[in-house]
Design goal:
There is one protein chain. This protein is rod-shaped. Helix content is 58%, strand content 22%. With 180 residues, the chain is α+β, with helices and mostly antiparallel strands.
């Protein structure tokens, strides 16, 4: 095709074509930037929503952690109390065990008026008893029973004045009893 237009008009037509191309490219660029902006705004919205969800989860976990800390402190307090009770009861003497060992050794005609647990030592528990016996034989049987049980009783001591009377004897005795 032959172009018979003057050079000025040809130049204007080329400039208009270039202007149209630049306008089209500008519109495409503007549309691209606008859609990119909308896309970024949409992503920002999703990220803000996700951030809010994460804040809610964080606050829930923080609240549950605080309740667990309270529970942990309460557990530590209970454990301390249990340990104190264990130490307290662990250091206690089981008096039923002592009475179970002592009761079969006492004859029927011997009556106890008092029993005292004096102290703990490496030989067991030191015990002092006072009482009365109808006869000297009953008192002698008590002494024999205690001395004969060497694995449980030791250091059996009757004061000499306990043996003076023959009937209605008031006596005192001290000994050590081993406990497990």
């Amino acid at each position: 095709m032959i172009n018979l237009l003057p050079d000025n008009q040809k130049k204007e037509i080329r400039q208009e074509e270039k202007l149209k191309i630049v306008s089209i490219l500008g519109l495409i660029l503007i549309a691209y930037l606008l859609s990119l902006g909308l896309l970024l705004f949409l992503v920002k919205g999703f990220l803000d929503a996700d951030l809010e969800i994460q804040k809610i989860y964080y606050n829930d976990k923080k609240a549950s952690l605080e309740s667990l800390k309270g529970l942990e402190e309460e557990t530590a307090s209970v454990n301390t109390k249990i340990l104190k009770l264990k130490n307290f009861y662990g250091g206690q003497t089981d008096y039923t065990e002592i009475f179970n060992k002592l009761y079969p050794k006492i004859p029927a005609d011997v009556y106890l008026s008092s029993i005292s647990f004096l102290s703990k030592n490496d030989k067991g528990i030191s015990i002092s008893m006072q009482g009365s016996s109808d006869t000297r034989e009953g008192l002698n049987l008590l002494k024999t029973n205690l001395e004969g049980a060497e694995e449980d009783f030791s250091d059996v001591f009757f004061p000499p004045e306990s043996w003076i009377k023959k009937n209605n004897i008031n006596f005192s005795i001290s000994f050590n009893i081993l406990i497990d």
